[in-house]
Amino acid sequence: MKQILIAFEVPEECYAAYEEEFDFTVSLGAPMTTEELLEVVDQYDGIFVAGTRVNKEVLDKGSRLLVIGNNGVGYDNIDWKYATEKGVPVVNTPTQVTETTAEHAVALMMTTMRGIARYDDRVRRGEWGTPIFTDENMELHGRTLGILGFGRIGKMVCKKAQGLGMQVIYYDKFRASEAVEKEYNVTYMEFDEVLANSDCVTLHMPYVPENHHLFSMETFRKMKKDAYLINAARGPIVDEKALAEALETGVIRGAGLDVFEEEPKVYEALKHLDNVVMTPHVASAARRTRVLMAQEAIDGMVGVLRGEIPSNVINREVLEK
Ligand code: 8YV
């Protein structure tokens, strides 16, 4: 029987359908670290990770590896280029994260723009009054949302934001077809134009080295002074030090963050600002979604091990050879 290691705790319903065909080992407790993975990877034909870094060393040690699964749509934790060189297919969860992650991005938008966290804190401290004509928050309806990265999640955020009465503009390296732009009632603009015209900018692109610190002080200065930034994509897209400065000095008005440059570390200055709302990388964290994500990845891994080419293989060229 082929051996599959699930390097984080998952409920049995995620893999029960395949228990007669494959031998699953599930790691209990916190997700395995790269070092822990290194010690055992040579015993498995497939490994399924949730955010654990799978580097060259793991791939070299994993001499039996036929497939790697990642419990997320973003796979920057895996050295997939090296996996491709070694002929190891990598599968992810491209569809099941979409709606829940978009929902969280919108929740961050609402929380941040309407000042919910700050007001909640004030009420708890027994404070009440807020200026009648306040600039402490902003209504969403009638405002412009700029979406950077118009893939599945970006599109879902678009729909939800329109439901809240926002106009949507977007930029993506690969512009959508005219038909898609029409279907989503969305306007394409160049990157800088999106920055200049948005009341809120939300990030939905993958992390690739070209995107490292795409948001620097220079970028923040191109945004409106009263604009908000939402990041539920990947931390290193934003220079956290520059963001803290921009928030502190009024270069932009607020930010909502689910991801950070060096998780689980959070840049200290951010913790002391009341115009930033932060969550600990939980945009897809809701039980039903997480079960569906794990099933999507495991279905793909099993497909690979059965000799098929599942739709969620990110380096399908290794299977098409
Ligand atoms: C995490 C995510 O992968 O889908 C992604 O890209 O960032 C998340 O869903 C998940 O939290 C790790 O299991």
Helix percentage range: 25-40%
Number of strands: 12
Across the major sheet, the strand order is 8-7-6-9-10-11-12
Tell me the Rg in angstroms: 21 Å
Count of helices?
13
Ligands bound, unique: 2-keto-D-gluconic acid
The top level CATH class name of the largest domain = Alpha Beta
Shape: globular
CATH homologous superfamily placement of the largest domain? NAD(P)-binding Rossmann-like Domain
Poorly predicted regions: none
The helix-and-strand class reads alpha/beta
CATH architecture of the largest domain: 3-Layer(aba) Sandwich
DSSP strand content: 5-15%
The main pleated sheet reads as: 7 strands, parallel
Distance between the termini: 25 Å
Number of domains: 2
Estimate the mean pLDDT confidence: 98
N-to-C SSE string, H for helix and E for strand: EEHEHEHEHHEHEHEHEHEHEHEHH
Q: CATH topology of the largest domain, which one?
A: Rossmann fold
Give a quick set of tags describing it.
321 residues, alpha/beta, Rossmann fold, 2 domains, 7-stranded parallel sheet, 13 helices, 12 strands, 35% helix, globular, binds 2-keto-D-gluconic acid
